[in-house]
Amino acid sequence: MIWLYRIASLPFLLFSMPYYLGRMLRRGGYSKDWPQRFGFFKKLPPKSASNLKKRIWIQAVSVGEVLAIEPIIQKLSASEDTEIILTTTTSTGYREALKRYEHSILSVGLFPLDLSPCSALAWRRIKPDLIVLAEGELWPEHIHRAHLKSIPTLLINARLSDKTFNRLKHFPALTRWLLTKINSIYCSSQQDADRFKELGALPEASVGNLKLDVPLPETISEETRLNKLKALGLGLGLGFGFKQDPPTSHSGAAPFVLIGASTWEGEESLLLKIQNQLIAEGIDCKLILVPRHAERSASLIKLLKAQPLAWNCASSKDLSDTPIKIYLSDTTGHLKECLALADLAFIGKSLDPHKGGQTPIESAGLGIPSIFGPNMSNFKSVTRELIQAGASIEVPSEAMLSTEILKLAKDPLERSAMREAGRKWLDQNKGISALIAEAILEVLR
């Protein structure tokens, strides 16, 4: 079976190269340590009789996975018997991994292309005793190599989107061959566990979402929140926020802060429209936009220049002198800080034509009520639980999104109830990270 994959993977890579090269150029940063993608991993201390530490190779695709595994890395790093190598796929994930872990683990690098020569070279350089794959990282060459060497393989925070699940069902023999080589699977939800079982996974899957254990900023006081908003230019006493503000008086009431969390194309325009509707209703609405991909900032700046409300962005050198209504986070890694300032979060990638949805977990953990469209297939179980808990609202259309946001903007008591429900839900569902870390240590003993 592995030879079929090897034969098919090279032409597939060549066929898809223009798409991925285009994406790399748009996002930037892919030239850093480029040889590692072909297996030329950086030099590591040699294994010897005096170095009996077990080497754990963890693969996390991008920023989200790099953040999600932090509690596990902390637990494993506390053991004197292990050393950790962390690889990522995306340039943004690599930058975040270097920032967080470069000085606390053995090595941070880039995951090699899943081609036999590249994978073989990386394996010869890393020499792992156990490999860990996060979320959807089902790389056949990588997993097969571990199986040949009797190296335990763990899949953590495993999830299968509707699209991936249906695609794998079309290749039952290959999928079963691959999944049976994995020793332990820890799924992010019961639905994912059921899907892996249906596809032929042999080990009993444990359930728990790693992202529930990700450290979040401490809850800030209302005074601190307002001071932070003021520092961004979004504070009190700023008029209506138009580029040419007419003189106006203010009641001193706190503004209503709406955030677009990990938004995709088209969603920012919709939120701007909703913001104007709220202002027309007499609500002092401030809008924070945090796009999923920072490389879209040029098009978003163009969009903001074409509308009448005053705005600024994170990359600007001067954020506080000009009163604004809209703040664009056009740099990577500030979603949690921005979320903590909001009264209500719209979760991106949840409305047509987008599918899958971004995670609402951080919003719930920070006590920020969230609202999203019907396309949240990547987080079906989580969104269902949050809705049932009273922490989130799902709307079927753009029109209903506007209606519900207006209703919540006028109802601080409802927002307060949603805020407490989100925090309670998170507290009740934490703990999978410690279980996984202990399981890894147990396998290596």
Description of the structure:
The structure is a single chain. This protein has 445 residues and is α/β, with parallel strands linked by helices. Helix content is 43%, strand content 15%. The protein has helices at 2-27, 63-68, 70-77, 91-101, 116-126, 140-148, 162-169, 172-179, 190-199, 222-232, 267-280, 297-305, 335-339, 361-365, 380-389, 398-409, 412-428, 432-444, and strands spanning 54-59, 82-88, 107-110, 130-134, 153-158, 184-187, 206-207, 256-263, 285-291, 311-313, 326-328, 344-347, 370-372, 392-394. The strands form two sheets. Strands 3-2-1-4-5-6-7 form a seven-stranded parallel beta sheet, sandwiched between helices. Strands 10-11-9-8-12-13-14 form a seven-stranded parallel beta sheet. Strand 12, helix 14 and strand 13 form a beta-alpha-beta unit. Helix 3 (70-77) crosses helix 18 (432-444) and helix 11 (267-280) crosses helix 16. It is globular and about 70 Å long. The model is unreliable at 238-251 (pLDDT under 50).
* Helix vs. strand class: alpha/beta
Low-pLDDT ranges: 238-251
Major sheet: arrangement of strands: 3-2-1-4-5-6-7
Helical segment tally? 18
* Helical fraction: 40-55%
On the 0 to 100 scale, the average pLDDT is 89
Q: What's the N-to-C terminus distance?
A: 32 Å
Main pleated-sheet profile: 7 strands, parallel
Portion in beta strands: 5-15%
Q: In total, how many beta strands?
A: 14
Gyration radius, rounded: 23 Å
Shape type: globular
